Every structure is written in C-alpha cells, then in structure tokens.
Amino acid sequence: MILGRVIVLGLYHDPEHPEMDWWEEGRSTPGDRILYGMTTALSRWLREVHGREAHDIPYAVSDGGIYLKDAAVLAGLGMFGRNNLVIVPGFGPRIRFRALWTDLEVEALPLRECLSPCIKCGRPCQKHCPQQAFPGGHYSRERCLSRMDADKASVASRTSDTTQKESVRHCRNCELFCTASFFPSPVLCLRTGRHQGMIALQPEDVK
Ligand code: SF4
Ligand code: SF4
Fold first, then answer.
1. What lines the ligand 2 site, CB under 6 Å?
2. CB 112, CB 198: distance < 8 Å
3. How far is the CA of 37 from the centre of ligand 1 (A)?
4. 93, 87 Cβ separation under 8 angstroms
C-alpha cells in the first residue's frame, strides 16, 4: 500500500486586497482558486516530469479534504495562535492553505518547540470577535459558524436576482487584529531540529 505524503502550500492574503477572500457559492474565493492553480500545476509537474502519482486535495473535509491548519502545523509552516489560526512566521495568520497528495516517500519530520507570539499579547484577536466566540479563551466553532451563516444569509437576502452573484465578505476580525504578522520564527526558537516543524509553547508551558 502506498501511503505517500501531503504537501501543504500557503498563500499570503494581503489585507490591502480583501477581495482575495471574498467567497462565492460554488466558486470558493479568488485566493483559493489561485491556490488550486498552484496545487494542480505542482501535481502535473510531479506526474509528467518525475513520474509520480499526485493530485490536488479538495478544500472541504466533506469533499475528501484534510484538516489543512493541522496539516500546515505538522508540515512546519507555523503554529496555532489563540485565534485558532495558524500563525506563520513573517505573515501572521494571513495565510490560506491548500494541499496536494503525492506518492513520494520522505522521512517523517521532527517537531521543534518555539515560543508562541501569543505569550505576551493582550489577545486583541479574541476581544474584537463580534460573536464572543472565545468563551474562556477557547475558540467556539459553533459561535463562529453562526456568524458565517449570518454573513451568507445577509448577502442572499440582498440578492434577489439569482443570476447575479454577490460575494460574501466573511468576518476576519480574529485574523486582522492579530499582532503577530512579523513574528520571526528562527529568532524565537528554543530548540532547533533538522527540520522546521513547530509546536507553540503557551504561557502555562513557560515557567
Ligand atoms: S471569524 Fe469573526 S466570528 Fe469567527 S471567531 Fe473570528 S472574529 Fe469571531
Ligand atoms: S492577537 Fe495576540 S493572542 Fe491573538 S493570535 Fe495574535 S498573537 Fe496570539
């Protein structure tokens, strides 16, 4: 049986270009379409140039996708922040992910410990949540989803002509208020391994 590997790609979503994140029924977002182009091109290159099996992994778990944020952390791209988003060194939580599968077999990668940028932060990400979706400091998926559903319903109620599609501009407060944009990983690393995998040390871990 071939297990293969998952390759995770990330794309910076510049707040100066919010339209990259505007969601359309059946089309996802422009940013995700760019990522899809990247994973399909990389898959094609692996197949045609290197003779590997490779294909894009669907975005939604319900369509056969994977938990992309967890995969990104395991791949060493970043660490989970208090906002339940992956904080990527140099880019903060403003990265969207997509993945592809390939039959390449590579050695498993060790994780390393890094100081979380959340340790000395006053949690503006949580304080600016319009849904109070961080009760007790922990992310409530249910509360966040209720906001996303409301965002979609609000657009649907404004759009009477079903041939005209209006994009949904979902809430991004926990992302946009995050102060960790310029968090540089190598400087804050407590213990380095051969690889870049990271796990975040939270305040309770640091004596
Ligand atoms: S996306 Fe908006 S509603 Fe959801 S957790 Fe973040 S700030 Fe709260
Ligand atoms: S705003 Fe602060 S506490 Fe929230 S995720 Fe960013 S660094 Fe962490």
1. 81-83, 117-118, 121, 123-125, 178-180
2. yes
3. 28
4. yes
**Interval 3-52: pLDDT, tens:** 889 999 999 999 999 999 999 888 899 999 999 999 999 999 999 999 99
**By alpha-carbon position, which residue is closest to atom 3 of ligand 1?**
144
134 closest CA partner among 93, 94, 173? 173
The runs of H, that is alpha helices, within the chain are: 30-50, 68-74, 124-127, 141-158, 173-176, 185-188
Nearest ligand atom owner, CA of 142: 1
Which ligand does the CA of 134 lie closest to? 1
What are the structure tokens assigned to 124, written together? 């503006």
Residue identified by tokens 């926990």 is 174
Residue 27 one-letter amino acid: R
Pocket test for ligand 1, best of 147, 151, 152, 177 (most atoms within 8 A of CB): 147
Which tens digit of pLDDT belongs to each residue from 163-179? Answer: 567 899 999 999 999 99
* Residue nearest ligand 1's atom 2 by CA: 171
pTM: 0.84
